[in-house]
Amino acid sequence: MKLTLLLLLCLPAQSIAFVSTQSHSLSTRLSLLEKSQQVDSEAILTSKDSDQWIQDSYELETQRFIGPKQCLVYDTTLRDGTQGESVSASCDDKLKICKHLVSFGVDFVEAGWPGSNPKDAEFFNRAKTELEDKERARLVAFGSTRRKNIDAEDDNQLQTLLDSEAPTLCLVAKSHSWQVEEILRTTREENIEMIRDSVQYLVGQGRQVFVDLEHFFDGYNDDPDYSLACCQAAVNGGAKCLVLCDTNGGSMPWQIEKATKDVVEKFTSTTIGIHAHNDCGMAVANSMMASNAGAGLIQGTINGIGERTGNADLCSIVPSLALHVGTKFGSGIDLKELTLVSRYVDELLNRTPSSAAPFVGSSAFAHKGGLHVAAMERNPLSYQHINPSLVGNEQRYLISELSGRQNILGKMKKIGLYDEADSPQASKRALAILEHVKRLESEGYTFEGAEASVHLMILHSTLGYCAPFTVLDYSAQVHDTNIDSSSRVIQKRNQGQLSLLGSTARATIKVRTLNLDDTVYDSSESPLLYKDRLEVSDGSGPVDALANALKRALEPDHPSIRDINLVDYKVRILDPNSATKASTRVMIDFSDGEDTWTTVSVDENIISASLNALVDGYEYALIEHAQGCMLC
Questions:
Q1: Residue with more model confidence, 417 or 160
Q2: Which of 216, 258, 271, 547 is the 20 to 30 Å CA partner of 128?
Q3: 111 phi and psi angles, rounded to 5 deg
Q4: To which H or E segment does residue 441 belong?
């Protein structure tokens, strides 16, 4: 059976919902929706009891959405976003991301172009059984208008869109006369027919159709009458949304605003959308200006990923509209999940999150200057435009030579060392730590990205703190039979003369740990407070061998250490002119599967610098996972 989607254009509700034909009355549902912007996802979508979702009949409740007070969020991370360099997602990844986007409150999830590649075709096939009804109801399948000089019903690509069973289909269509004649190589009239025929055919099959008007703003500047004629053809075919695309990303915000306003005023019964690219760094600004001009649907991607320099970043647009404009979203965005969604998508796409990303970056609410931090202790909004918790992020105080005493006091208060961080004792200790930080940074340390090292520095300055372990001594040896350059290695390998590639390292380490055996204290009058342990381990290099040996020495008394992994290792030469005597800065990232932390050390001996950073990382891990207090 065909999926029937009825668009009701004149409803007074400023919201969108998918409702089955057997759901509650329309007036009751609208009353519930008007009570809260953040509608529960279960209230948005209900369906008849059926194992075949495509046979269910849904009514799409909406009026024309007009920005900036109303906005539908259309995510194209899984389609346009994956066109970015080094961005790739498996079918499993796309299904997981789709679920997260729907849970977050995105109105439409453009999941791919099923007619262009096997992976996207697989996604839509698996979505029929692996996604819930409320998730499938948000899916959009992307495609193009029919090919020139054939009928729409004979176009295989359009049939593939229907076979996807996505309730909404989005067609890309040329709207720039030069592009039509030079790139598409057809007549202006035929392009108009291609748009109308394709939309009309798909609407006739019971699908909701949006049209992405490619190169619209360039075309509008060159020949506005033709670009508007393309819009009219889409509307005549039954399109429910006209998406104006700044495909090359070269339009300025004032050009976007004027053209969008003209289209909004001309097509008074159709929602207008915006699709911006970031080639001039204007994608977010252009999207905001289009919304201000009346665009009621915004397309973008999580973290702004996309081809060339990326797409409009929904992680900036959505909170800006919500918190600074007061926009109401169709399905209700769960804004407090924004940072989590951003980092989840980066994780699945194997991308390093941008620390400087607005709203969601780790530096978005990080403060270094002492005067700033002092002011924020009185009122956090003195140097922040919002409360970071509104978008699921957190405020951070950075420690560096530019910091003031308030930065250290903020850290001490967060650790819980002082309830009253403005006490004379706390202030005096903070000043001493700050002077120590400044001296170390003059030697090459940097603590901005190594908060675990700062945490330990504060603890070690606290009276009564006992470190969970101490390294008494260590040694590291490297055995290597290959001392040739890489070019000769390749030559020898090809000639079969090379039997061993790579080096073998062995490390020995002696560690003293606190004696955590309670029975010893109960049965002996003079119990040993410490235990010494000597361990040996091999590794692919001296640092790897030391890490393995240290971990083996700590595991018997601290089993939680086995869950700690090194996830990154960075080395920087601080004074290259000193050649092999140069000081080296080592930064190591650790993770326990949930949280990550970084430590730093500087030494002329790269092995010593690495071991010191390792020791700090494992000590921090044991403190965070300790069963008891480390004060003695």
A1: 160
A2: 271
A3: -95, -5
A4: helix 424-442
Calpha distance 320→404 (Å, rounded):
31
The span from the CA of 354 to the CA of 358, in Å, is 9
E-assigned strand segments in 334-457: 366-367, 396-397
Both tokens of residue 482? 């290959």
Q: How far is CA 482 from CA 421, 440, 485, in A?
A: 57, 38, 9
> Which backbone phi and psi does 468 adopt, to 5 degrees?
-65, -20
Q: Please report which residue ranges of 332-369 form alpha helices under DSSP H.
A: 338-348
Structure tokens at 188: 């202006």
Q: How many residues does the chain have?
A: 632
Q: Where are the alpha helices (DSSP H) in 67-222?
A: 91-104, 118-130, 133-136, 156-163, 177-182, 188-204, 216-222
Q: In degrees rounded to 5, what are phi and psi of residue 2?
A: -80, 150
Rounded CA-CA distance 555/513 in Å is 11
Full DSSP string of 445-466 = ---TT-HHHHHHHHHHTSTTB-
Is residue 248 packed enough to be buried (19+ CB in 10 Å), middle (13-18) or exposed (0-12)? Answer: middle
User: Under 8 Å CB-to-CB from 134, ≥6 apart: which residues?
Assistant: 18, 41, 42, 44, 45, 102
Q: Give the number of other Cβ atoms within 10 Å of residue 330's Cβ.
A: 25
Buried b (16+ CB within 10 A) or exposed e, 126-150: ebeeebebbbbbbbbbbbbbbbeee
**Predicted local confidence at residue 483, as pLDDT:** 60
Distance CA 394, CA 387 (A): 8
CA 625 – CA 287 distance, rounded (Å): 45
- Of 424, 371, 370, 368, the C-alpha closest to 398 is 368
Q: Provide the pairing of β-strand 58-61 with 17-20.
A: antiparallel
pLDDT tens-digit map of 124-170: 999 999 999 999 999 999 999 999 999 999 999 999 999 999 999 99
Range 175-189 average pLDDT: 93
Residues 314, 78: Cα–Cα separation, whole Å:
13
Which of residues 315 and 583 earns the better pLDDT score?
315
Residue 22 has a CB neighbour count (10 Å cut-off) of 11
**pTM for this predicted structure:** 0.65
What single-letter amino acid sits at 563?
A: D
Q: How confident is the model over 454-471, as pLDDT tens digits?
A: 777 777 677 667 788 889
352 DSSP 8-state letter: P
pLDDT value at position 588? 87
Cβ within 8 Å of residue 475, ≥6 positions away: 507, 508
